[in-house]
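Q: Give me the 3D complex with flavin-adenine dinucleotide.
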Amino acid sequence: MTQSADAVVVGGGFFGMYLALLLKARGLSPVILERGPDFMLRASYHNQARVHNGYHYPRSLMTAVRSRVNFPHFLQDFPESIVEDFDKYYAVGRVLGKVTADQFETFMARVGAPLQPAPERVSRLFSSPLIEKVWKVREVAFDAGKLRLTMRKRLEEAGVEFYFEADARCLTHRADGAMELAVETNGGRRLYGTPWVFNCTYSGLNRLRYHSGLPLLPLKHELTEMALVQPPQELQNLAVTVMCGPFFSLMPFPDRGLWTLSHVRYTPHHAWKEGGSQSGTEAWQDAYEHFDRAVKSTDGPLMIRDAARYLPAMSKCRQEGSLWEVKTVLPQSELDDGRPILFHRDPEMRGLVSLMGGKLDNIYDIPQELAALGLGM
Ligand SMILES: Cc1cc2nc3c(=O)[nH]c(=O)nc-3n(C[C@H](O)[C@H](O)[C@H](O)COP(=O)(O)OP(=O)(O)OC[C@H]3O[C@@H](n4cnc5c(N)ncnc54)[C@H](O)[C@@H]3O)c2cc1C
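A: Here is the predicted complex, encoded as structure tokens.
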């Protein structure tokens, strides 16, 4: 039997959850389908937990400005998830970098992001032949476990229906103009008739499209690893990002009581593309299956060794594990490392919308996109 729904949100990551709340506030009764056993177990958990404040994007004006605008909103909307018990420093490398200290300062002045020279006791920690300048900034982390609880509570309070272990497989047109979504559940198969399907499946975006015979969206996927580390005493409560090239970033990962170490050279183990110029079903592979099959042999020691060239105390980091995930970005982001939101309405299946944010605060771009669909407040 086919069940009907005002809107189906496929994917119970942060974006799917947030979107469902927006739809509910607009008078619809959305249903969330999540293939995993709980909310936010994929990219919305396995990330560097940074609430962006503009500093990370010195080559993309739009992304930096949007991050600055979104930052206070995120802090206000999710106060229980915010962790700020550390000092954050950005540094610029002298060699191999894509920006100089002067360029970084000029850019941040343009986007209104304050930079304070790091105190001597902190800049001394860095290797001066390799690091040109260090600044103290305001950037915070979020606790992904707490964010999951907050979002689930909000969905429950709003009365949004959701199902776990519900894998949306395939969409077809119905004669009445609506769509029919076939879903595999652990109890069998379910069908939804609905005018709106919001595909919020991040690295799985093309999976539903492929099985529905629709052209692939151009996406780049990376198998990523961030080392989970315990920093040494001299780096306690000190988060560091070295910009902007083959460098590293150390951030708290509050849900585990550890820190993530990412490295531009070692975090992506390998990458693959789909859609775009190679569009066609043959270019597609299931990102989740790819992830499950991939050999996950840690590059944590390489990350630590290279980071220690810039910040020698990093050599004393103890690796406790790794966070692995498929990171998905839009191919155009390779030019300037920007992170725009993808909000794509299918030209043929007009009720199918694919939505992907390159960072969590991109949720604040969704309301205006909904308004453009006629789903404004
Ligand atoms: C290594 C890494 C570091 C990052 N660092 C940061 C950072 O510091 N700050 C920041 O803001 N952002 C960061 N990001 C980006 C951020 O994680 C993503 O923008 C965000 O999590 C995307 O959320 P989402 O809900 O779209 O995706 P996800 O959280 O992946 O949710 C998609 C959900 O869809 C489900 N799903 C997939 N297919 C189906 C299907 N067919 N049926 C039902 N359910 C399905 C999946 O199980 C999953 O739960 C990082 C990402 C990575 C990978």
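A quick observation: The first helix runs from residue 14 to 25.
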